Predict the structure.
Amino acid sequence: MRGVDDPHQMTDLPTSLRERLAARFAASRPELVAHTVADEGHTHKVLLRYPDGEAIEVVLMLYPRRATVCISTQAGCAMGCPFCATGQAGFRRQLTAGEVVRQVVVVDAALRSGELGGTDLPAGAPDHVTNVVFMGMGEPLANLEATLATVRWLHDPDGFNLSARGITVSTVGLVPGIRRLAELGLPLTLAVSLHAADDRLRDHLVPINRSHPLAELEEAVRDYRETTNRRVTIEWCLIGEVNDSHEQADRLATIARRLRAHVNVIPMNPTPGVQWKEPSRGRTRAFMDRLEERGAAATLRDTRGRDADAACGQLLASYTLGGGSRLPVAVGAAERVETVASP
Ligand code: SF4
């Protein structure tokens, strides 16, 4: 049976095989240890813990006709971006392809059964996962084989059977991985986390830039677009007084025009342990206006989940840093936990 996580429910398989599978999968089955709901039921964040104690977060965002699940590929991250909670916590281990796939399966099953969303499902939101974005913890292209295997399974008609256009893989700019992704020949969306538009600032904000500087990254992204015929997006975490200047906007607009890319600007969330702040409303507006004046296609994104516990990496950060005290913990069940910090 498709989309079930428990081999005992795979009633189209022989009983003996179900039992063997159950015994084998039990060792890697994650436990849902925390669940927060935000944005009036539109955003669900769940913390999954694997038997070895590692925890990762999965975010489900519900829109009319779209249910997007944001998955993690690593426990922690080695990229060390100084504005990111996950980057501060460091790298712990790679997730296996099975563990990455499992995140989609668990959320999809919980959505279908009503465990997530349930009777409070926002109007028009589907009861199953329609889109997957690799934007959770970790750098997907630093766990390349698991990421490629997950993409193949997501798209496979005998797997999750998702349209390639419903899959987005993000990267901070691992050029060899971008080239391998292009070789799949699928029209996946590639989301490049740029965050700085000159090497000097980017070396600091996104340390991998020292190995793959902007010119090399731009060339790989251009090749990706030409191979897949798919528009690339540029992600820009807007950090107050760091990368929100007119000068950065001008450089970013030039790159975006050259790549014919769409820019998503996401104001930084306040992050535990990070000294930088979100930009002021005035500077955010000025940055967006400048991009428009310079001919870049750009959208200011809301920071989904801000009132649950902010963005990428932060559910785990506060769970760990707070010793579990800030997040109510629901062991073993998708128990609905009301928003911790409601507006
Ligand atoms: S921003 Fe992404 S790549 Fe950078 S440290 Fe955080 S999770 Fe890793």
